[in-house]
Design brief:
Elements: H1 2-21, E1 44-50, E2 59-64, E3 68-73, E4 79-84, E5 93-99, E6 102-107, E7 111-116, E8 122-127, E9 138-143, E10 148-154, E11 159-164, E12 170-174, E13 183-187, E14 191-196, E15 201-206, E16 212-216, E17 228-233, E18 236-241, E19 244-250, E20 254-261, E21 264-270, E22 273-284, E23 287-295, E24 307-310, E25 318-327, E26 334-342, E27 346-351, E28 356-361, E29 367-374, H2 379-388, H3 395-419, E30 440-446, E31 450-455, E32 461-466, E33 479-484, E34 494-499, E35 502-506, E36 515-518, E37 523-528, E38 540-544, E39 549-552, H4 557-562, E40 568-573, E41 578-584, E42 590-597, E43 604-610, E44 621-623, E45 629-631, E46 639-644
Antiparallel strand pairs: 1-2, 2-3, 3-4, 5-6, 6-7, 7-8, 9-10, 10-11, 11-12, 13-14, 14-15, 15-16, 17-18, 18-19, 19-20, 21-22, 22-23, 23-24, 25-26, 26-27, 27-28, 29-30, 30-31, 31-32, 33-34, 34-35, 35-36, 37-38, 38-39, 40-41, 41-42, 43-46, 44-45
Length: 653
C-alpha cells in the first residue's frame, strides 16, 4: 500500500516537472529587446581597401551616399563599425583619405574630421572658416600634396579654398564657373572633371594648375548623350558611354590613355604596378555576369588574374567595380577580389574568375513601404482542414471525406519512405506558417526600386527582385497593398505596388509572377477596397489627375460600381491651399462635393493625413473611470490637415 502511494506521488511529481519544462516566459528585462537587427550603410560612393591591419588588407572602408562612414570585413561582409553623419548636405562625405592608420574626411562645407580606421572612433574635428556659398552648385574636395586640401565651391559665387591640414588655415580665391549650374562633376585625388551637357565638353580642374580648362569630348564618345565619368585612382579617369570606355590621365594636361569596349573600369595595384580592370556586363536569362579583362594603363600585358564573375538572379545591373590584388597565403599566384555595386544598391564581393563570397542588400537602407503578409499553411495543415469539408454536409459525407484525406496522407508518407526521401519539416517551414502564426513575410519596397521579402523571425532575405524603370521612389506617395492573402487556395496571393503611374503586381510570398504595368494617366490618389470579388481579390481603385476613376483589375469594375456610394476622393494643392472633395457616380465618374480654401485664411498646408483603410477598430468606445463610455469617431472618410499661419493676437514674451 505504501509502495503504491509513493509511486503515485512520484508519478505526479514527474508530470508536474514535465509541465514546468514546457513553460516558456520572458524576464522583465527581456521585454522590448530586439529579436534581430540589421545595420545598413547604403550605396557606396567611395571605397578604400584598408591594409593597415595585420596580415594585409582586412577592412573595406566605405563612404556612402546616405552619409555613413563604415568599415566591413572583406571576407564575410560583416560590419566592423559604422558612423552615421549629419543628414542632408551637411553630412555628405566629399573625400575620405587614409593617413598613417587614420582616416581623414571632409564633410558638409567646412567639417574636417580624423577617424581611427581600426575602431571608427573620432580622433579630432575642426570647423573650418568657410562660409556656405549662396546658390552653390556643389562642393568638391581635392588633395594638393600631403599637407593641403582644396575645396572648390562651384556656382555663381564660385571660390577655391586652400586648407592646411595641420593648422586648418584657409586661403580663399575666386573662381569663374558660369557653366556649373547644369554640369555633373566627379572629383579625383588631385583633379576634377565636369561634364557640360550644353557645350558637350569637359571642364577639367587640376590641383597643379589651380584653374579650369575646357577639353573636347573624346571622338569615340562624341555621339553619346549622357557619358558617365568615374575616378579610377591616382590621376586616371574613365568615361563610359554606349558600351565604350575611354581612360584619360589628368595631370597638368589632358591625355587620352586608352580606348576600348566595356561598361566599367577600375584600377588596382599588382606587384607595385598599376593594373586596369575592364568589365563587360552581360545577362544570360536571369543570371547577370561580368567579364573582366586586364591590361596596363595605356596597353600592354600584366601578370594579374582575369575572368568572369556570375552573380545571383536577384542582383541588379552592375554599375561600378572596385578591385584589389594580393598574393595568396601560400605565396603562389596573385588573387584578385572585386567589389561590385549594382543599380539596385546590392554590394557583392567576388573573386575574379571565381565565386561570390558575400552580398549585402544595401537597398534596405532606404525603405519606403512595408507590408506584413501571413505565410501559407503547410500541405499537412491544408489536408487536415480539408478533412472537415463543408460544415453543412451530412455525417456520412463528412466521414468519407475525412477517411479519404487520411488515406491520402498515409499513402504520401509510405511513398516517401519507399523512395528513401524522408520529408523534413525544416525544408518547407521557411515559407509556411508556424503553430501560432508568428512567422510572417515582410514585403519591403526600397527607394532604388527593389522589392524584397524578409523573414520576420530572423530578418534573412527570402527573395529579392529589382524592378527596372521604377527608381527612384519617393519617400511618400507609394501605395503598397495586399490584394489577396494566402488563405484562398488554390488562388495564389497577390500584392500591388503603385508609384507615379507605374503599377507592379507580384506574389508577396515568393516574389514571382511579377508584372509591370504603365498607366496612361497620372494617379493622384489610390486605395485598396475592403470588399473582394469572386476570386477573393481586392480591387485597386485609382483617381487620376483628370478626375477619372480607374479600377485594377478591369474584371472588378462591376464590384466597384455596385459600391460607388461608399467611395470618396480628395485633392489638396499645397501651392494654392485649396482642398476639394469628390463623390463617385455609378459610371465611375467623379462629382465635386465640397471645396475649402485655406489660403484665404492665411494658412499654409503642411501635411494631410487620411485614415488607413486597413485600420481595424476593435471596440467602439472606451470605458472611463466614472463608468461612462467615450465613443470613438470611426468615420473612414476622416481627414486630418496640418496647417500653419501667423497668429493675429499680440503676445508678450
Amino acid at each position: 500500500m505504501v509502495l503504491r502511494k509513493n509511486m503515485a506521488r512520484f508519478t505526479i511529481l514527474v508530470l508536474l516537472s514535465c509541465l514546468i519544462l514546457k513553460v516558456l516566459a520572458l524576464y522583465e528585462d527581456q521585454a522590448g529587446k530586439f529579436d534581430w537587427r540589421q545595420q545598413m550603410v547604403g550605396r557606396p560612393a567611395h571605397v578604400l581597401f584598408d591594409a593597415s591591419g595585420a596580415g594585409g588588407y582586412k577592412r573595406l572602408v566605405m563612404a556612402t551616399e546616405d552619409n555613413v562612414l563604415a568599415a566591413l570585413n572583406h571576407k564575410s561582409g560583416q560590419l566592423i563599425w559604422r558612423r552615421v553623419l549629419e543628414r542632408g548636405e551637411s553630412g555628405h562625405i566629399h573625400l575620405p583619405l587614409p593617413s598613417n592608420g587614420d582616416l581623414v574626411t571632409y564633410s558638409g562645407h567646412n567639417l574636417l574630421r580624423v577617424w581611427c580606421a581600426a575602431t571608427g572612433l573620432l580622433i579630432s574635428e575642426a570647423a573650418l572658416d568657410i562660409a556656405p556659398a549662396s546658390g552653390a552648385a556643389g562642393l568638391h574636395v581635392l588633395t594638393s600634396g600631403r599637407d593641403q586640401l582644396l575645396a572648390l565651391q562651384l556656382g555663381p559665387s564660385a571660390a577655391l579654398h586652400r586648407i592646411a591640414r595641420g593648422s586648418g588655415q584657409v586661403t580663399t580665391a575666386p573662381l569663374s564657373t558660369p557653366w556649373a549650374g547644369a554640369a555633373r562633376c566627379v572629383s579625383g585625388a588631385e583633379a576634377l572633371l565636369c561634364w557640360d551637357a550644353a557645350a558637350r565638353a569637359l571642364h577639367v580642374f587640376t590641383a597643379a594648375s589651380g584653374r579650369f580648362s575646357k577639353q573636347p569630348l573624346p571622338p569615340a564618345l562624341s555621339a553619346s548623350q549622357e557619358p558617365r565619368v568615374r575616378h579610377l585612382g591616382n590621376d586616371l579617369f574613365a568615361i563610359a558611354a554606349s558600351g565604350r570606355l575611354t581612360v584619360v590621365r589628368v595631370t597638368r594636361s589632358f591625355e587620352v590613355v586608352q580606348e576600348m569596349a566595356g561598361d566599367m573600369a577600375c584600377l588596382a595595384q599588382a606587384g607595385g604596378e598599376q593594373v586596369l580592370y575592364v568589365g563587360k556586363y552581360s545577362k544570360t536569362g536571369k543570371v547577370p555576369a561580368v567579364e573582366f579583362s586586364v591590361s596596363a594603363p595605356g596597353g600592354g600585358q600584366v601578370a594579374a588574374p582575369a575572368g568572369a564573375v556570375s552573380l545571383t538572379a536577384r542582383h541588379g545591373t552592375v554599375s561600378a567595380c572596385h578591385v584589389t590584388v594580393a598574393p595568396r597565403r601560400d605565396g603562389g599566384q596573385l588573387a584578385a577580389r572585386a567589389l561590385l555595386v549594382g543599380d539596385d544598391d546590392a554590394v557583392t564581393m567576388t573573386t575574379v574568375g571565381g565565386d561570390v563570397l558575400w552580398t549585402r542588400e544595401e537597398a534596405l537602407a532606404s525603405v519606403v513601404a512595408v507590408e506584413v503578409v501571413d505565410l501559407p499553411m503547410s500541405a499537412g495543415d491544408v489536408s487536415i482542414e480539408e478533412q472537415f469539408g463543408d460544415p453543412a454536409a451530412g455525417p456520412v459525407s463528412a466521414f468519407v471525406r475525412r477517411m479519404t484525406s487520411q488515406w491520402s496522407q498515409l499513402a504520401s508518407l509510405a511513398a516517401s519512405v519507399v523512395s528513401g526521401e524522408v520529408i523534413q519539416g525544416s525544408d518547407v517551414t521557411h515559407l509556411t506558417r508556424d503553430k501560432f502564426n508568428l512567422h510572417k513575410m515582410l514585403v519591403v519596397v526600397t527607394a532604388c526600386g527593389k522589392l524584397l521579402g524578409l523573414h520576420s523571425q530572423t530578418g534573412a532575405v527570402a527573395w529579392a527582385v529589382p524592378v527596372a524603370g521604377l527608381a527612384p521612389l519617393p519617400a511618400e506617395g507609394v501605395v503598397l497593398g495586399l490584394q489577396r492573402g494566402t488563405a484562398h487556395f488554390p488562388h495564389a496571393p497577390a500584392a500591388a505596388l503603385l508609384s507615379r503611374g507605374t503599377l507592379v503586381t507580384f506574389n508577396p510570398i515568393t516574389g514571382g509572377e511579377l508584372a509591370v504595368h504603365r498607366l496612361g494617366a497620372g494617379v493622384s490618389q489610390a486605395s485598396l477596397m475592403q470588399q473582394s470579388d469572386g476570386t477573393h481579390l481586392k480591387p485597386l481603385v485609382m483617381f487620376d489627375t483628370a478626375g477619372a476613376v480607374h479600377v485594377w483589375p478591369d474584371s472588378a469594375a462591376a464590384l466597384v460600381k455596385s459600391l460607388h456610394q461608399r467611395l470618396f476622393f480628395y485633392t489638396a494643392d499645397v501651392a494654392t491651399g485649396i482642398m476639394q472633395g469628390y463623390a463617385v457616380t455609378e459610371d465611375l465618374r467623379t462629382v465635386p462635393t465640397w471645396r475649402l480654401d485655406l489660403s484665404s485664411q492665411g494658412q499654409t498646408i503642411r501635411r494631410v493625413l487620411a485614415k488607413s483603410p486597413h485600420e481595424r477598430v476593435h471596440s467602439q468606445g472606451r470605458v472611463l473611470a466614472d463608468r461612462s463610455v467615450l465613443y470613438k469617431y470611426a468615420n473612414p472618410n476622416l481627414l486630418m490637415v496640418i496647417t500653419d499661419a501667423d497668429d493675429p493676437v499680440h503676445k508678450r514674451l
